[in-house]
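Q: How would the structure tokens look for this protein?
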Amino acid sequence: MGSPGRGVGRYFSRSRERAHAALPGLSMWRVPRQLCAHFARGSQLSGLWSRPAAFMSTLLINQAQYAWLKELGLREENEGVYNGSWGGRGEVITTYCPANNEPIARVRQASVADYEETVKKAREAWKVWAEVPAPKRGEIVRQIGDALREKIQILGSLVSLEMGKILVEGVGEVQEYVDVCDYAVGLSRMIGGPILPSERPGHVLIEQWNPVGLVGIITAFNFPVAVYGWNNAIAMICGNICLWKGAPTTSLISVAVTKIIAKVLEDNQLPGAICSLTCGGADIGTAMAKDERVNLLSFTGSTQVGKQVALMVQERFGRSLLELGGNNAIVAFEDADLSLVVPSALFAAVGTAGQRCTTARRLFLHESIHDEVVNRLKKAYAQIRVGNPWDSDVLYGPLHTKQAVNMFLGAVEEAKKEGGTVVYGGKVMDRPGNYVEPTIVTGLAHNASIAHTETFAPILYAFKFKNEEEVFAWNNEVKQGLSSSIFTKDLGRIFRWLGPKGSDCGIVNVNIPTSGAEIGGAFGGEKHTGGGRESGSDAWKQYMRRSTCTINYSKDLPLAQGIKFQ
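A: Here is the predicted structure in token form.
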């Protein structure tokens, strides 16, 4: 996923402050850099990330330097099922730190029997939760946001440890959840439909919105907190109960977040199953997709898996909310301000090591500025501070898994075979963990197969274009339609870009990167991105069902088409 992830300025000078720090809703800009630096200095984690494997023979959670994990309620083996009580009878898995591939702790996943029990308890909990007035539900969500605030630094540190993103992004991702909670509190007093005039005397039409019931939430590894937050906070104020299955490789984060929420529900004497958790793999995900008791399934992940999920849900005429892949483009015209283009392309392509769904993977440059922009980008890439995610000065961390490294290498080789030239990067870094060089490739055809393939890695394909018509078509020719951005000063071109013949994406930007959406707008994309919308605007409607209600408050009964029964 990709809405979270702010901080263009941080990819250059240490002294350069983030330009958008005061903008509401841009959560990750607002995390004070000093706070992260203070935590890094105050912890005992410095240096551990690059220690040889021979010195890391035990689980990290058992080492004194990682004792802070226990402040989140984590231990050597954790129960991965919550439905009012903790349990789990499935497979025990181990999660690893991407920065050194050392084991962190273990999680016992859900069995199919655990899933069945959890769904039953969740549906019972809904009977209680649906009776709570929406503003009161908003109060509970406010308390969840406050509880997350109290743990924001330590939970963000876990995100950095288990997912691999840099600390400021890990903390900022938790802030994203907090911000959505704040947003949802206000929304809890505003959701509802209009009262409509009736053509019949003594009648009124009301649009009534009710919760769908049980919302299943399947999230991906790249934003293991924020995406759940978008869904959970909005679904809760709408009157739904939630069943969460996070990515197996970030199971500790799922457990830690659920423990925070469970405490709030317990303190308010509400059923814990309102926010249930079933850690697991494909068996649990398949069960959720096929289960008619799951009234809405929100799925975030790859287009390939998302298609399978959509077909299973559609088979039972269920509802799904899909947030899938993106093959996003930045377009820079000859009149573009290059002082905006270069840092925007850098941030969008390299942030989170290229593992956002809004990552810029294609860079279309007018032929008159192509060489200059590529050269500037190469110099900017050389300044990126690579290192341990825990270091507050580091701006680029590892890929999430070894498999991702192999995918990166495969994509680089394929780009070469198709005629591309690697002008920067292209190799695995010689250091512990899953580090690869951020990479720029030029010389490919705009419709090269590899350029039309989303690779979750920091590979940027740069192309030359001649005119507006062709580059607008090139932007739209990929199967996904998530995010896009244009850089120009031409007002007419800007509005053509925003219009029906312009970008066909769900996020259409001007003079900013493809990453960094605000929570107040609906987030999502078109075509193979899935069509779902989360977070702001009227995305709350996805979590509710609508009824049109006609009320006769007169003593007459005018029938349709003027029919009269004598």
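DSSP finds 14 helices and 24 strands in the chain.

The domain at 328-520 is CATH 3.40.309.10 (Aldehyde Dehydrogenase; Chain A, domain 2).

Upvote if useful.
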